[in-house]
Design brief:
By secondary structure, the protein is of the alpha+beta class. It has one domain: YaeB-like fold. Helices cover about 30% and strands about 30% of the residues. It has 3 helices and 5 strands. A 5-stranded mixed sheet has the order 1-5-4-3-2. The protein is globular.
Length: about 100
């Protein structure tokens, strides 16, 4: 998936916040602004091209103050980004770099 395309969609506000995502953001004390910043400043660390109804990606932004992961799906045809969830990565599941998934 093209990161520049994702950034363009996010920059123009074509974002749909899934109910699950909004619930998790509140539980985890993560703001919508944090999610947008992560998407725009982060990198794609995993792609799920076979996800339905739209392909999705995991984007990570490992900042100095905190790390954040965002899962989003993209409807490329209609240029809409669906925010699925966001979370602070856990070293139980990710390597020390917080971007490489640990082998289970």
């Amino acid at each position: 998936m093209d990161k520049k395309r994702i950034d363009w969609i996010i920059s123009y506000g074509n974002i749909h916040w899934q109910k699950h995502a909004l619930q998790r953001l509140m539980e985890r004390n993560i703001s919508r602004a944090d999610v947008k910043k992560t998407i725009l400043n982060g990198i794609i660390i995993e792609s799920y091209v076979d996800d339905r109804p739209y392909p999705s990606v995991l984007i990570a932004d490992i900042g100095e103050k905190k790390a954040l992961h965002v899962v989003l799906a993209i409807n490329v045809e209609d240029e809409i980004c669906y925010i699925i969830t966001a979370y602070i990565p856990d070293e139980n599941y990710f390597e020390e770099d917080l971007m490489t998934r640990r082998r289970q």
